[in-house]
Please model this.
Amino acid sequence: MTDPTVLTELTALALQAGFVDGLTDFLGPSNLASVVVEGLAKSAIYVMIASGLTLIFGLMGVLNFAHGSLTMIGAYLAGVVMVVLVGNATGQWTRMAFFFGALVVVFIALAFLGGVMEIGLIRELYTRPPIYQILLTFGLTLVLEETVRIVVQFYGLQPISEWQGALGTKPAFMATEHSLGPLSVRGLAAFEILLGLATVAAIWAFLTRTRYGLYIRAGSEDAEMAEALGIDVRRVFTVVFALGAGIAGVAGALLMWDPVWGASVPLAAETLLPAFVVVIIGGLGTFRGTVAGALVVGMADATTTWWFQNVFITWTWLPEMAVFLILVGMLVVKPQGLYGVEEVGGH
Amino acid sequence: MTLLELHGVETYYGESHVLEGVTLSVEEGEVVALVGRNGVGKTTTLRSILQLTPPREGSVTYRGEELVGLGTHEVADRGVGWIPEDRRIFSQLSVAENVRVSVPDGRDTEAALTMAYDTFPVLDERRDQEAGTLSGGQQQMLSLARGLVGENALLLVDEPSEGLAPQIVADVADALNDAAKETTLLLVEQNLPLALDLADRFYVLDKGRVVDDGDTAEVSADDERLRRFLSA
Amino acid sequence: MAISSVTRWVENRRLSWPVDHLRSQQVHLLVVLALLAYPGFYHLLTSSSVSNLAVAILPRMDSMVAVLYFALFAMSFDFISGYTGYLSFGHAAFYGTGAYLVILVANGKIPLLPPGTPFMISLLLAGLLAALVAVVIGLVSFRLTGVYFAMVTLGFAQVMYVFVRGWNYVASNPRDGPAIGSTHPDGFEIGVPFVDQLNLAIGSFSGDEVTLLGHTLGTYTVSFYMVGLVVLLSYFAMQRVIHSPFGRVMIAIRENEERAEAVGYDTFRYKIGAFVMSAFFGGIAGGLFAGFKRSVTPESTFYFLTTGDALLASIIGGFGTLAGPLYGHLFDYGVREFLSNRGLGGGLLPYLQETLSQAVLTTTLPGGITVEGFIQAALNGHASLYVGIVFVLFVLYVPGGLLGTLRIGLGGKVSERLPAKLWGDR
Model:
């Protein structure tokens, strides 16, 4: 379908929209800085939706297709907590406190769900080819999503669109812009960056500073050897699956406040696909790689979003396309990802 | 006192029948060598003891307790250590972390680290280095250290001299000799002079069965009694 | 029974070659006959005294058309995924390519191909273009294995999905997808190109009706037969490949790729070859979809959940059985229709409303919800939940799927073993 007229059309559009003007604009200090801040906020979201996925894959080699569904459940659960607790008169700081309470609730509930899933279902499949784990977790997405849909509809909410009631529980300072020196920063973006940093730091500390983290890293590299050193790798599997599910839920709680995402059933697929992209770009199973991958994807997303909003306003597909093109490009050039080990697909 | 006893152990990899009834025993405080050609089931014997490849028939008892049916980590918890072929150190963990992860729960990790560094000073120098960057000999030292800090009563040592320069083989032999003063060793070794030098007794394995055994004092490395089972 | 007595009769006449051939095809013939008889069967039952039940349970005729072309897509997915073990998670790309090509040709958007291009030709081109896309995707993707292969193919399909959703050349509102415009008001004809008498058009309003022995076959029934014809030919083509030496190498790759390579097969070329063939039939399936529905959306073609539906059909029907996905998809679609909302051929609720008394439907269950309310809230429109549960159970406990399990039970391929079991010979 290489129609020359299409190409000329595109070129004309690019020139007409003023690519060169756009570039000068983009490189201006205030624009560039705001793109970087937006990019960091997006990176924070990406690292949160992808971390659990990468921990689970790194240790057990299970690519958890149900990960997005867990994020979606986390979003609704946090929404329930907030909508129940927050009233019109609730102050900003009380709302923040409730949110952190909701994070704890969501983490515990999702970790429990993840643990049950691992013990009841996933465990059956460790001896089978890895393809079966994809199949099983894919099936679980159908079950989880439809169950949520039933519950949500039962309470009179529209499962397709974002849950406005939950979005409205945000403290006011997150919904507005704040000037930081010459820079104007959205309150929510700043909060996302902080929460993302806190999550990365917590996972990092857990992996490198605790005995259990040491078990996880050893088991990820050579489960059999770890077992022979006296580590109950099966139990570690359960703990990591629970942990991964809990982190997915926490990410969902954050997205519940973000109008771009919001609590809805389709959130599952909307988060699953970018999470896959992030972990593959970083190298499946390496946490360091996932952080790097999230930065790459977040920055690319923010940059292309800026270009779409300011220059190529008809190219609605630009940001999303960029994300998947990075994925394909990465797999073509360096299939093991930024920090992955050489043996690709050798699982 | 008998520490470990295998009786009629039959082990399979999928359909292929690797051990066809192995019977052997190891007394407390002994060093026992398991020798034989490549592919006769020496490593599989160790894996069967550890329940990494559980036997389909036969029994493996340790201090009188049946190991078949236990998980590998439970075998390890009872004091059976493994120093595997190819070392299998955790290459992305630091040297110190490799040692730490091998210390049983609830034991003094710092004391174990000191002990490991005293025994292998080279590990002390490289404690914060990623283990994957160590040389082959250093990796073998680390693997030995991992076995030693595990406070194991029985160490299963697989091909410790494989692929190492002669000078380093001597170091490894010294370390094993030291270890033998405190624990029992079941040693798989291709290097026959080294094996006979280290061990008190030997078993010869051929095609998944024990075909000969005796005291190492009775034989020498070029004895026809051993050579017919070892040369290709 | 009838087939068997025929083959026996022929055998007694010592015409052994055609008998063997026919005998080996007995099960295929039975399935084809059952499908041929379905429209009549459906018509008979839905106008009989048990019509309420029949309407509730039996898939409607237009649903059966959809079952057929999507089953072809699911078979093409099984052809590569089930036989070589490479999970083609971006298979929707081929379905979408085929569907979009057919519509673009009919809308005069493809240079050199006028809107009046015979459907059989644009269908062939749909397959060929999908095959070409597969060459590009395959050359990159088959350097990887396992999870990575699944992910990179998924990535390619998503790139295409995002692309067609934003490309306003394909439709005025590309997010909603293209539809056949005024340049091609007629139905798409399946048959021998350029020979008017040997063609019948498919589609709900634009399709042909046929009067046969005083009975009128509606447009859906005609579409069902014509689409079925293409699906059947495609199935046999894929089945021939599976049973050829080429197919044996595909299975060898699934069982142990290193060994296949060690024996001297250039597995990369076999994998690409199999991928291209499966894409061809995936494209044909997409073309049939577009030809029957006359409008498509990015979600119903290029989106990864379209591949998910093929996966569902393959696992429930039998992974690596080729014919299994047909039964798997029939099950999937059947449950969805049975539990769909009213007005979409919904089976359960209208049936209960007609058969049960109003008192039963308004009975309050524990928890303060009526029977009718419960059905509306937990069953209707929520078939995914129940199909998903079945799918999970199949993955865990019935890894062979419907057809694979039947094969294990009979000790061989159904088409070979069933006749032997039934007639007790050979």
Notes: The mean pLDDT of chain B is 91. DSSP finds nine helices and ten strands in chain B. Chain B has one domain: 2-230.
